[in-house]
Write a structure and sequence with these properties.
0% of the residues lie in helices and 26% in strands. It is an all-beta fold and 91 residues long. It has a domain of 61 residues: q5lls5 like domains (HSP40/DNAj peptide-binding domain, Sandwich), CATH 2.60.260.40. The strands form two sheets. A four-stranded mixed sheet has the order 1-5-4-2, with no helix packed on it. Strands 3-7-6 form a three-stranded mixed sheet, with no helix packed on it. It is globular.
């Protein structure tokens, strides 16, 4: 298991999933409009991915943005990039 995967709660009501995560008060959740995007720019260090939800989605999983400013979903390979980190040179 990827250490960036923090877990999910499949029985939690959809409205409370984002606020009950023990590691952060704010989380970015993939929306249906972002389902087909390979890269999603986020503003929080904790992201939640469900593949865009619905029949084409996957279980809700949480990922912490790594020090390099990115995180990847283990299910759909969607890449999350922390806003302001795109295009920066890392050395």
């Amino acid at each position: 298991m990827n250490p960036a995967r923090l877990g999910y709660h499949p029985r939690a009501p959809a409205a409370t999933r984002e606020t009950r995560h023990p590691m952060a008060n704010e989380v970015t959740v993939v929306t249906p409009d972002q389902r087909n995007l390979a890269v999603v720019e986020v503003t929080t260090r904790l992201v939640a991915c469900n593949g865009g939800g619905g029949a084409l989605g996957h279980p809700l999983t949480y990922y912490e943005i790594r020090p390099d400013g990115t995180a990847n979903c283990n299910y759909c390979d969607k890449k999350f990039v922390l806003a302001g980190r795109t295009g920066e040179a890392h050395g």
